[in-house]
Amino acid sequence: MAFNKLDHSLEGEFLPRFRLRIAEEKTAIFDKIKEEATIETTVSGTFAENYVILRIPKYERHYWSPELQIQSIRSEENNASILRCVIGPAQSVWLMFTFFYSITILLTVFGGMFGMIQYSVARTSAFLWFWPVGIVLLIVLFAVSKAGQRKARNQTLHLVSFLLHALEKEYEVTRIE
Question: Where are the transmembrane segments (predicted)?
């Protein structure tokens, strides 16, 4: 098996982005994933010609539930396909955290700069508090995202193992990168 949740070495763990090489055409691979997803009740999915999104079913889903996005990026000689897989929270969660990080960083930098200018002119400024408050907010955002990542760990492992078990039933799967 390409991944093993009990093996904590570099090869046993997985990153949010990974690639798989399979010695088969992409259409056959995506058909096999779709077939296995219809049999398995713990995984639902959205299927397109070159793109698959595997999710946890709605009745088990929570705010931090992951999605596994699979895309065929190219075919090599001998009918081998490369699958690009990305696992993470739903797009709305990514967007929300990107927004919060961006706003916090912008307010911290520009509020702190404004505070430094006021301090250099008037020797007093309440805007200097933007820096420590912004740093604390960034640490809190990071801690919240890590807590969500821990909460979604079992579902993440389930989606990755589903994909690998579904493909390894018929094909030889090699992890690259």
Answer: 93-114, 126-144
SS3 content of the chain, % helix, strand, coil (to 5): 50, 20, 25
- Record the pTM: 0.82
Residue in the block written with tokens 């916090």: 104
Residue-wise pLDDT for 95-154, tens only, equals: 999 999 999 999 999 999 999 999 999 988 899 999 999 999 999 999 999 999 999 999
* Residue-range definition of the domain harbouring residue 46: 17-90+154-171
Radius of gyration of the chain measured on its C-alpha atoms: 22
d(CA 100, CA 150): 20
Specify whether 81 is located in the same domain as 158: yes
Decide if pLDDT at 56 tops 60. yes
What is the average pLDDT score of the chain? 88
Contacts of 123 by beta carbon, 8 Å cutoff, 6+ apart: none
Among the listed residues 42, 45, 36, the one whose alpha carbon sits nearest the alpha carbon of residue 70: 45
Helix (H, G, I), strand (E, B) or coil at 85: strand
Structure tokens at 31: 């058909």
Do 166 and 106 lie in a common domain? no
Four-residue CA torsion sign, 142, 146, 149, 151: negative
